[in-house]
């Protein structure tokens, strides 16, 4: 394994220190929450802190599986966040030289583990100019007979792009036509669809692996809880073996709390979706009211990826330094995602409303400071 720290981790808000940022528009989740704010009973005084079920506590797996009629609780493997799930999948499926096709731009974790394994990582680019649309014909042309893994993220981080259920089914069919390939769908934002959520991808085929977590939609990254789903019994056994050798089992407290949150999601999710919609409306109006930045409006999730309309008119380095140093505002610069620094990820779900408005004002002020 060849590990390296990535810019998104080195420069993350928690690494800089939250107190150094007045207006944090860099986050890719709903606002950080406490269990008390969600009205969750946190009394675990009688919970036996033993080694737990290696797959994850049954009540939690049942809650996760309830999202799909095609998935059973015994096909869910709980992990300590989505990142370990992605690590487990990559290390279980890939070896040095194996071909993997990964949608780009993407969150670093989806890319770095295959790279660390010395797999042949090929990017599957989606582009601003195409409205961040996924070209299924291009996917089909880029898959090889020896491709081991196709990895996509929907709803998409960092662009907020989305595909519909028909496109997802077509994507599954494309992968099924390649005997060695599997499809990994990072569906962490699935419950933050603006309309009907996509089906749980793993429910569509045994060749598909779903990955998700509690961090983004629920604003609970401190509750280290994620999962992966596969309906392939042989692969499931391999993934379980990987988890056992890395973690043995999860935290009994985290799993119990996660089960309680998911049991209450019918109550918890509606106000989250309402606030996300309100904040998207604020950014939509802001985009329409200025001529410095442009974006493809997100179709799901809590992030979008604006860019300068005229990048040659601005000094990107000066923009980002002024934005933080002079205006106390932080965004996710494009290089976090192997993109130009003239674009950036803007998170509109995490900040409070007044913080979001101040941050948007700061973007224009910093752009004025950075005119070439």
Q: What form results from the Cα inertia axes?
A: globular
Count of spatially separate domains: 2
Mean pLDDT: 96
Give the % helix: 25-40%
CATH topology of the largest domain: Aspartate Aminotransferase, domain 2
**What is the second-level CATH architecture of the largest domain?**
3-Layer(aba) Sandwich
Strand order of the largest sheet: 2-8-7-6-5-3-4
SSE string, helix = H, strand = E?
HHEHEHEHEHEHEEEHHHEEEHEEEH
Rg, rounded, reads: 20 Å
CATH class of the largest domain: Alpha Beta
CATH superfamily of the largest domain: Type I PLP-dependent aspartate aminotransferase-like (Major domain)
Low-confidence stretches: none
Q: What's the tally of helices? A: 12
Sketch the major β-sheet.
7 strands, mixed
Brief descriptors of the model:
372 residues, alpha/beta, Aspartate Aminotransferase, domain 1, Aspartate Aminotransferase, domain 2, 2 domains, seven-stranded mixed β-sheet, 14 strands
Helices and strands in order:
Blueprint: H1 7-10, H2 13-16, E1 23-24, H3 58-65, E2 76-79, H4 82-93, E3 99-104, H5 108-116, E4 120-125, H6 136-142, E5 149-153, H7 165-176, E6 182-186, E7 208-213, E8 226-230, H8 233-246, H9 252-263, H10 265-288, E9 293-294, E10 303-304, E11 307-308, H11 316-325, E12 329-330, E13 332-333, E14 344-347, H12 353-369
Parallel strand pairs: 1-12, 3-4, 3-5, 5-6, 6-7
Antiparallel strand pairs: 2-8, 7-8, 9-11, 10-14, 13-14
Helix pairs in contact: 3-9, 4-5, 4-8, 10-12, 11-12
């Amino acid at each position: 394994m060849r590990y390296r720290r990535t810019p998104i981790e080195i420069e993350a808000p928690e690494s800089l220190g939250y107190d150094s940022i007045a207006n944090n528009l860099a986050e890719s989740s709903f606002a950080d929450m406490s269990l008390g704010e969600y009205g969750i009973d946190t009394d675990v005084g009688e919970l036996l802190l033993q080694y737990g079920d290696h797959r994850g506590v049954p009540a939690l797996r049942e809650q996760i599986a309830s999202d799909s009629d095609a998935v059973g609780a015994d096909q869910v493997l709980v992990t300590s966040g989505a990142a370990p799930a992605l690590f487990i999948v990559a290390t279980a499926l890939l070896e040095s030289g194996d071909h993997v096709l990964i949608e780009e731009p993407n969150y670093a974790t989806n890319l770095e583990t295959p790279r660390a394994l010395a797999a042949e990582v090929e990017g599957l680019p989606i582009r601003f100019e195409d409205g961040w649309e996924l070209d299924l014909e291009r996917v089909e042309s880029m898959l090889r007979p020896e491709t081991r893994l196709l990895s996509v993220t929907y709803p998409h981080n960092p662009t907020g792009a989305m595909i519909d259920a028909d496109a997802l089914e077509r994507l599954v069919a494309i992968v099924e036509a390649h005997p060695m390939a599997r499809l990994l769908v990072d569906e962490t934002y699935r419950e933050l669809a603006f309309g009907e959520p996509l089906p749980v991808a793993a429910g569509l085929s045994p060749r598909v692996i779903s990955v998700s977590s509690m961090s983004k939609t629920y604003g609970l990254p401190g509750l280290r809880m994620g999962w992966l789903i596969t309906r392939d019994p042989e692969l499931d056994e391999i993934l379980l073996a990987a988890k056992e050798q890395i973690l043995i089992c999860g935290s009994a407290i985290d799993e119990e709390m996660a089960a309680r949150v998911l049991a209450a999601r019918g109550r918890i999710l509606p106000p989250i979706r309402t606030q996300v919609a309100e904040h998207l409306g604020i950014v939509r109006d802001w985009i329409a009211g200025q001529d410095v930045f442009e974006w493809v409006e997100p179709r799901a999730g809590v992030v979008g990826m604006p860019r300068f309309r005229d990048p040659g008119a601005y000094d990107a380095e000066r923009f980002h330094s002024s934005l933080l140093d002079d205006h106390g505002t932080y965004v996710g610069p494009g290089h976090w995602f192997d993109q130009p620094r003239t674009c950036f990820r803007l998170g509109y779900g995490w900040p409070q409303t007044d913080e979001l408005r101040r941050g948007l004002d700061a973007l224009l002020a910093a752009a004025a400071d950075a005119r070439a």
